[in-house]
Design goal:
By secondary structure, this protein is α/β, with parallel strands linked by helices. The protein is built from 10 helices and 6 strands, in the order αααββααβαβααββαα. It has a 6-stranded mixed sheet with strand order 1-3-2-4-6-5, with helices on both faces. A hairpin with a 2-residue loop joins β5 (about 230) and β6. α2 (about 80-100) runs antiparallel to α6. It is globular. The structure holds iron/sulfur cluster. Iron/sulfur cluster binds near residues 99, 105 and 170.
Length: about 270
């Protein structure tokens, strides 16, 4: 098949699922409000993959399939009130809903999955990407892995509504495959701005996709966990993704060790 024919077929396929606009991708450097920490480029290979059935293509909302500039010029959120943070997050979420940067994800998503929780949270949990349940409900970590995350949060004597939960990607990769480097790069300005608005003191990276994208570190979880890392002044803990724990329950003890380390640093009494 020649290139022109293959391209025509791809465009016809996208048109059939509702995509009638293909954005011109800006260089990511131009989208970033602040430089990332020095080091390697984001790496997307990882050991854990999320579970869940493959989702079929869904029509794109044509009213929102328009590329809009990203909100990246707001001031740091250190002094923002709760109401100002809610307003900033709502504005960012509106841009996420309209985002069409990742054509395959846009063609397959039911809806975008922004983030959920306390806009004043001291602690953020940072995952990989929505799965089937999250794509259906529009909220991160609501499936089996989400239920396990809730238990982890409760083990830390916190509630889900005390923390903020978000992912590297805001759209579900088909079949729960790993995010591509291009997709993670596309979504980076969005999660960076989201974290900037929340301005947490602590971030827990769930799995190596989250860790590699936040920390620009291409190391296995085993080499990253057990100590604090830095992300723009926030203390970062790296631990295993709950989906990995569902398949490997023996790793739960390492997550509990990481949570106890976190609790001590946060000043939360650790259960005996
Ligand atoms: S994953 Fe992020 S960058 Fe890609 S289409 Fe969804 S919101 Fe846009």
């Amino acid at each position: 098949m020649d290139l022109a024919r293959a391209l025509r077929q791809k465009l016809e396929c996208l048109q059939q699922v509702g995509v009638d606009f293909i954005p011109k991708i800006k260089p990511v450097d131009a989208l970033l409000s602040k430089p990332s920490s020095p080091g390697e480029q984001p790496v997307i290979e990882h050991a854990e993959s999320r579970s869940g059935p493959t989702v079929n293509s869904n029509p794109v909302d044509r009213t929102t399939a328009v590329q809009r500039p990203l909100l990246l010029d707001s001031p740091p959120s250190d002094n923002l009130t709760r109401e100002e943070r809610i307003k900033a997050l709502d504005g960012l979420n509106a841009q996420v809903k309209a985002c069409t940067r990742c054509l395959e994800l846009v063609a397959n998503r039911t809806q975008t999955v922004f983030g959920v929780g306390n806009p004043m949270a001291r602690l953020c949990f940072f995952g990989e990407a929505p799965g089937a349940d999250e794509d259906a409900q529009g909220e991160p970590f609501v499936g089996r892995a989400g239920q396990l995350l809730n238990k982890i949060i409760e083990a830390c004597t916190l509630k889900r509504e005390d923390v903020y939960i978000l992912n590297v990607l805001r759209c579900r990769p088909p079949g729960n495959r790993n995010p591509t480097l291009e997709e993670a790069t596309n979504c980076r300005p969005l999660f960076e701005r989201q974290i900037e608005i929340i301005n947490p003191e602590f971030i827990v990276c769930l799995g190596s996709i989250a860790a590699s994208n936040l920390l620009n570190q291409n190391l296995a979880i085993g080499k990253l966990r057990g100590r604090f890392h830095d992300y723009r002044g926030a203390k970062v803990v790296v631990t295993y993704h709950p989906a990995y724990l569902l398949r490997n329950p023996a790793a739960k003890k390492y997550v509990w060790d990481d949570m106890k380390m976190l609790m001590r640093e946060m000043g939360i009494p650790v259960p005996a």
